[in-house]
Amino acid sequence: MKKDGPLMVACPACGRKLAYDRSNRWRPFCSERCKTTDLGAWASEAYVIGGAPGEEEPPDEGDSGPDAPRRND
Ligand SMILES: [Zn+2]
């Protein structure tokens, strides 16, 4: 029986290959940086759609609490 390695995926943010493995906490991103970058882009897009032009609010801060424990089974 052929033993497969970990599933390799490309990071949606930078395209770097990474193992889609439970040990990779940032999956499917390669790093926290890419994950937050992507989420930031998504958030700003949503904001542009929902917000009125010329109306800006300060970004929400202090919303980066500890990661909730996650069960993988
Ligand atoms: Zn990346």
Automatic annotation (TrEMBL):
Q: How is the cofactor bound, in the record's words?
A: Binds 1 zinc ion.
Extent of Acidic residues compositional bias: 54-64
Name the Gene Ontology molecular function terms of this record.
DNA topoisomerase type II (double strand cut, ATP-hydrolyzing) inhibitor activity; zinc ion binding
Keyword tags: Metal-binding, Zinc
Which family does the similarity line name? Belongs to the DNA gyrase inhibitor YacG family.
TM segment ranges: none
**Gene encoding the protein:** yacG
Cited Pfam families: YacG
Where Zn(2+) is bound, by residue? C11, C14, C30, C34
Q: Which organism is it from?
A: Quisquiliibacterium transsilvanicum
Q: What does this protein do?
A: Inhibits all the catalytic activities of DNA gyrase by preventing its interaction with DNA. Acts by binding directly to the C-terminal domain of GyrB, which probably disrupts DNA binding by the gyrase.
- Can you say what this protein is called? DNA gyrase inhibitor YacG
Q: Quick one: where's region Disordered?
A: 50-73
Q: What taxonomic lineage is listed for the species of origin?
A: Bacteria, Pseudomonadati, Pseudomonadota, Betaproteobacteria, Burkholderiales
Subunit-level organization: Interacts with GyrB.
* Xref: HAMAP family: DNA_gyrase_inhibitor_YacG
